[in-house]
Amino acid sequence: MAEKNDGIMETVKTIFWALLIAGVFRSVFFQPFFIPTGSMKDTLLIGDFVFVNKMAYGYSKYSCPFSMCPIPGRILGSEPERGDIVVFRHPTLNTDYVKRVIGLPGDRVQMKEGILYLNGEAAAQVPAGTFEEVFERQGSFGTVPKCANAPVGEGGICVKDRFTETLPDGVSHDVLNVETYPGMPDNTDVYTVPAGHFFFMGDNRDNSTDSRFDQRAGGVGMVPFDYLLGRVDRVMFSAAGKRMVYFWTWRSDRFFKKVE
Asked: What is the four-CA torsion angle of 19, 255, 79, 94, rounded to 10 degrees?
């Protein structure tokens, strides 16, 4: 009986230390994150599995699971650069989001007829063909994409215009456009980013809930530095199906793909 109890205790200790090591690794170095929505297409697709670099911007209480880190403010902090893809905690919904840093503290941000303006300067957009995908329910949420060629039937090809956008400091990335709307999200007021905050937008500009939308209306608003969890540098794995185990839906061309 004593040997049996000793075996149980050894198993409990092994599980405890394994969980502790995994928790420390997740809190300090890299956190796995699964892309559930299409707001960052075509840079990140629904079903992409990424590791978030927790060391990139330092640590706050939100760096630990359940926001349990006993850290006042932020330590070892390094501010993100414009164009970084960041996972952050929504300031009011306690949900993790992934978007691109567009506005830094003090910046003035505005959208006019689908064109981004930073501090009064337009971010150049150059046509980069189209982005095509099958019109079907995607991912665990079962969402369907917005299409520039709507209406599209189930199984048809959904098309969006793609542009390469270059920010005023020279960072380039692709953005998608469905159509130019007379109001939000393609035409906005001028937003001034407060000190210690950042302005985020999705690359799928017409299908992204981001800093263009106020938190009181379900949007993101300006995100305080303490809520940033880390930077996304690379897609490690990708699957187009509802479950990772559906190997026939794996996108092998996206394994270990660098994002920018």
From this structure: -50
Tell me the whole-structure pTM to 2 decimals: 0.87
The answer to whether domain 2-258 has CATH 2.10.109.10 is yes
Please give the Cα distance from 233 to 182 (Å, whole number): 34
What whole-number distance in Å separates Cα of residue 178 and Cα of residue 18? 47
Give the model confidence (pLDDT) of 184-211 as tens digits: 899 999 999 999 999 999 999 999 999 9
Reading the block at residue 92, the tokens are: 């009011």
pLDDT of 11 reads 47
Q: What are the residue numbers of the active site?
A: 39, 99
The H or E element containing residue 220 is: none
Q: What pLDDT is attached to residue 27?
A: 45
- pLDDT < 50 regions, the chain: 11, 13-27
- Residues facing residue 164 across a β-bridge: 126, 174
Q: How far separated are the first and last CA of the chain, in Å rounded?
A: 59
Cα(167)–Cα(43) distance, integer angstroms: 16
Q: What is the largest CA-CA distance in the chain?
A: 77
User: What residues form DSSP beta bridges with 31?
Assistant: 52
**Rg of the chain over all Cα atoms, to the nearest angstrom:** 21
Phi, psi at 134, each rounded to 5°: -75, 135
CA angle at 204 for the pair 201 and 205, rounded to the nearest 5°: 60
Q: Please state, in angstroms and rounded to a whole number, the distance separating the CA atoms of residues 53 and 30.
A: 5
Give the 3-state secondary structure of residue 14.
helix
Closest residue by Cα to residue 201 from 101, 65, 59: 101
**Which pair of structure tokens corresponds to residue 216?**
């009181």
